[in-house]
Amino acid sequence: MSKLTVACVQTNSKREPADNIREISPMIREAKARGADLITTPEIVGMFEPKRKLALQTAQPEAEHDVLASFRALAAELSTWLLIGSISIKLSDEKLSNRSYLIDPDGAIVARYSKIHMFDVQVGDGSTYRESGTYEPGTEAVLAATPWGPLGMTICYDIRFPHLYRNLAQAGAGIITAPAAFTKVTGEAHWHVLQRARAIENGCYIISAAQTGEHAEGRKTYGHSVIVAPWGEVLADAGDAPGVITAEIDLAAVNKARGKVPSLTHDRPYTAATLQSAAMDAADG
User: Which has the closest alpha carbon to 212: 21, 39, 41?
Assistant: First the structure.
């Protein structure tokens, strides 16, 4: 099974989980109707809540999570593979996990991935983002088994850490998902470059469903969900409106790209860089 149709569901998620279930479920149905074998959704798809206190109050543990249960039931009803880009999972009264789930056509959880890299930044739009204040970072890379081979799971800010993607690719991933809620400022500057770079570096498909538009507290996300081929071509781009994009992908393209540029097999050991002064260099000479 080297060929499949993948879909990105691009959303404008709200504060209330019930609202998001109601709005996003028809979009998942549309993706299935358009022939998608693997449907992906964005980061924090079940609750876009910028305020820490409200996020902690609203989030639910995995075993009681309404969004997870609803989307698992929908995957089973549609008999489809569904990547829940991420939802906020309550770990304690003080911490959540930003967690992605891969669901199989029976509604079973095949794999979980908790976001490793926390978005603690000031991007110049007047907002300060401190994800680590609310979320506990994950500690493990995750490779999931699918009918199309291993699938690597990442989330949003992870895209800026290429070693994670290289590790997943070298472990066998031909597809890597990178669901996101990229800010408008960083998206305009870096989104497409980063998506294409990770695909090219690793000779793999990058599937990135994204949030778009204006959300609670005036937060703005960039949109432009993309499906990128191993040679770097953008096969589909959702623009800046909520909706669904699809593309047929062929995993044979992974082997083809890696055969042309087999850089995943060319790693060499080296000594970490250290700063040397001109005087030391002159003395050594």
Answer: 41
Q: Which of 49, 156, 184, 204 is catalytic?
A: 156
Convert 201-224 to b/e letters by CB count within 10 Å (16 or more is b). Answer: bbbbbbbbbbbbbebeeebbbbbb
Catalytic annotation on 16? no
Percentage of the chain exceeding pLDDT 70: 97
Alpha-carbon span 29 to 31, nearest angstrom = 5
* 115 labelled catalytic: yes
Choosing from 8, 115, 184, 204, the catalytic residue is 115
Segment 1-42, tens digit of pLDDT: 799 999 999 999 999 999 999 999 999 999 999 999 999 999
Domains delineated in the chain: 3-284 (3.60.110.10)
**Which amino acid type is present at position 251?**
L
Catalytic residue check, 156: yes
Find where tokens 């979980």 sit: 112
